[in-house]
Design brief:
- There is one protein chain.
- This protein is of the alpha/beta class.
- It has three domains: about 5-50, Transferase, Pyrimidine Nucleoside Phosphorylase, Chain A, domain 3, CATH 1.20.970.10; about 80-155 and about 170-325, Nucleoside phosphorylase/phosphoribosyltransferase catalytic domain (Pyrimidine Nucleoside Phosphorylase, Chain A, domain 2), CATH 3.40.1030.10; about 330-420, Aldehyde Oxidoreductase, domain 3, CATH 3.90.1170.30.
- Helices cover about 45% and strands about 15% of the residues.
- It contains 17 helices and 13 strands.
- The chain has helices at about 5-10, 20-30, 35-50, 50-65, 90-100, 120-125, 135-145, 160-170, 175-190, 210-225, 250-260, 265-280, 290-300, 305-315, 320-325, 350-365, 405-415; strands spanning about 80-85, 105-110, 150, 195-200, 230-240, 245, 335-340, 345-350, 375-380, 385-390, 395-400, 415-420, 430-434.
- The strands form four sheets. The chain has a four-stranded mixed β-sheet, sandwiched between helices.
- Helix 10 links the parallel strand 4 (about 195-200) and strand 5 (about 230-240).
- It is globular and about 65 Å long.
- The two termini are about 40 Å apart.
Amino acid sequence: MNPVEIIRKKREKKALTENEIEFIISKYTEGALPDYQMSAFLMAGYLNGFNKNETAYLTKAMLYSGKVVDLSKIAGIKVDKHSTGGVGDKTSLIIAPIAAAAGVKVPMISGRGLGHTGGTLDKLEAIPGFSTSLDLNKYKSIIKTCGAVLIGQTKEIAPADKLIYALRDVPATVESIPLITGSIMSKKLAEGIDGLVLDVKTGSGAFMKSYRDAKLLAQSLTNTAKAFDKKVITFITDMNQPLGNYIGNWLEVHESINVLKGEEIKDLLEVSLNLAGAMLYMGGKADSIKQGIKISRDMINSGKAFAKFVEMVKLQGGNVNIVNNPDRYPKADIIYEIKSGHSGYLKTIDNYEIGMASLELGAGRKTKEDKIDYAAGIIFYPKIGQKIYKGDLIATLFTNKRDRIKPAEERILAAMKFSKNKVNAPKLIKEIIY
């Protein structure tokens, strides 16, 4: 096969065969296809699209570029959850121990922060000693012992995705729904799962800002999971404001601990319980999502979910004393309060700006070389629809760099719009796709 002919075919809006896509992906993974040709292929696909079958072929080629984990010797249905990312989205830390406590096996390969959104791996690594770099034997061992494991992508898992992911931003092809689908699903299918719960975020703090794009991505992910005979339930959820109140790596671990210990953080709990309920239903531990939600709440109220989180932390090398006593975690040197200069109902939040403010404080990376400050972040208090009075506390900032305070404060204040009239809170769970 000739890569130029395949690129030309896609450029001319023709559908590619499975063999043609497999050829391009395998040659690039081997190092036999240069970056400039892969960039041309990605751009042709971005502009002209990949159909449903092409997306499945792309996912398959990326999936089988490395190892597919075999968990068949471990009893039970294996279910994972994936979120497309947002601001304050810490649900993985809450639902993995809930599902495992209820008897579902949860093999979870997670990612790092991307742009304004936080990453599950960065949050977990805020726990002193916690290792997300485990080999596949250790990965299997912890699933068997504990029921839940959260690690990063290994060298053996979907290496084609790792290479293409690193290249996609250079030719400006990040937003391609088929490429996003292939990237997500190749990693998820390689975990050894039987089923997958998906959380596609939409709104100002999501990558898919419009509901239309979120729906297209949700359908693409769902179709691809079904093409591989996997059980799938997809949620489309709101990301027009931070989920919960804590933003930043350790802060989000702390808020997750609070939820697992029974604190009622309404929006965070609602999304977490729905996702966990779907995992229990899919894992055969509940007869419906509704019953799964009830069982998930029971796992929290009984203390079993938090105990499972502690067990998981211990098995992955983390300091359980800090998890049991989160207030002992070293605080940032600078703690700064922002007060409201307005009165009125909070109408909208540009949630992207809240995420970027957290990044300004040191909670994320502006370049690949940046080191994360695990103690940095924001506690953001108000919610859309809430009545705010002049002088009310809006946010508390945590950082170890004083020069980051001013730009973060400016972003947060500019992100909020107020109304004199009452405003309805956005609906959290917008749609569920089976």
